[in-house]
Structures are given as C-alpha cells and as structure tokens.
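Entry type: protein chain
Record version: 2
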Amino acid sequence: MLAAESLRRLAALVLSFCVLASGGTARAESPFAHWAAIVVAGDWHAHSGGPSEAFDNARRDVSKELVRIGFAPDNLRQFSVRPERYKDTTPGKTEPKGIYDALVALTAKAPDGCLFYFTSHGAPTGVVMDQSILPPGILGAMLDKTCGQRPTVVIISACFSGVFVPELGSDNRMVLTAARPDRTSFGCGEADKYPYFDDCFLQTTPQAKNFPNLGSQVQACVAAREIKEGMKPPSEPQLYIGPQLRPVLPLYAFPPPGVPKGG
C-alpha cells in the first residue's frame, strides 16, 4: 500500500485546491513540497569518446524544472561525475554510496514521495555511472530501502534503459525510460546540448498536467524528434505506472504555465 502519511497529506492538498477553486485566496502548497528528489549525471563523454556537457546540462536544467513545478530545493540533490566544474549547482560526486546516503537523508525529512532522475550512457546491463555500471537490481534495492512504499517516480535517460522496468516496476512506482531494453537512445554527441529524451522532458514539462501526462508527451516528442533527425531504429521510450499509483498520481498536479508554484 502507498505510505499512509503520503496519502493523508495528498488528501489535505486536494482539499486546499478545492477551497481555492471555490473562491479562497490562500496559496496551496505544492503537492511535491515534501518529496525527496535526486538528479544524477552519470558520464561526461559523448558517444564518440570526446567530452560532452549534455548530461550535466540535463542534470542542471531538469533540477531547475523540478523546482519550478514545486519540488523544494532543500529536498533535491544533484550529482555529477565532475562536480568541481559546477560551482553554481554544487553537485555531489556521482558514486553509489553518496547517492544512497543522500536518499537516506532526504527521505527522512521529505516523507511524501520520491523522484529519481538519471541521465547517462546505458548498456543492456544498466546505466553508466562514472566508468562503471549501475544495474537495475542495485538501484531497486536502494529505492526499496529509502523510498519504500511511498509514491515514487523513476526516470532513466540512457540507451537500453528499458531494462530497468521489470526490476523497478512495482505497485507504487512510475518508471519512464528513454528506450526499450533492446534499443539505443540518441543525442549524446559532443555538440548536443541535451540528449533527445532530456530535451523532450524539458520541452514538455511546462505543458504537462502531471507525471502520467508528461510521460506520454515525452514519448511523442522523442518519436517526432527521431523521425525529424532520421534516427533509426526508434528508441521507443517506455512508460510503466503501478496499479496502486495509477489513480493517485494524476492528483499530484503540475502548476499551469506561467503560474508560480505553491510552497
């Protein structure tokens, strides 16, 4: 079952939105104000082997967008393979222990839900994490121990990232991946600002109503971009929403474009 405290707080938020809709003037708190969020860049190389800022650009700007839709900055941590280069965002070092420790600390003070976003290269066995591979089983164990049964959104932007769906696709989770388990994704060149998938996430979030709606919009955006650029075979991003989360997650609404978040 979804965490009882998460459901209680969500019910209170829905009630506050109803009050506002009926003419109240108080600002509603964001439904993500008490969610823990981790955003990781797992590599700094292009597919050619040369240097690329694509993953760190995505890390930085995805984090900004999460704050815009209502995640509290104090409950969000960023990680980079080269953290010393990014004084403006002060990311931690991308490595398993640091990420796990951050999950432990954030979930202790932000009990309502979890978001985990990872952008990197991928392989059929997992995602690249600073010259090693983070397999689905290890990430699943980290999330089980920290996020537990609370609502959890996992987004993996990498080639072959569909391999994470069977391991992570539990009743209380949404899993969105950049590709099928047997397909590559695109946009990891030296000149790319973002991978295609991350670019679509950033383009569509301002128009999306909630995470399920965002997932379907990202899928459509990636398909259109790959057709435009002539990329084959299509990556086919995967979207899974667990049965317990499916009726609840749409209630965690994004702010409309141009409307400041609550908090």
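Comment: Confidence is low (pLDDT under 50) at residues 15-26.
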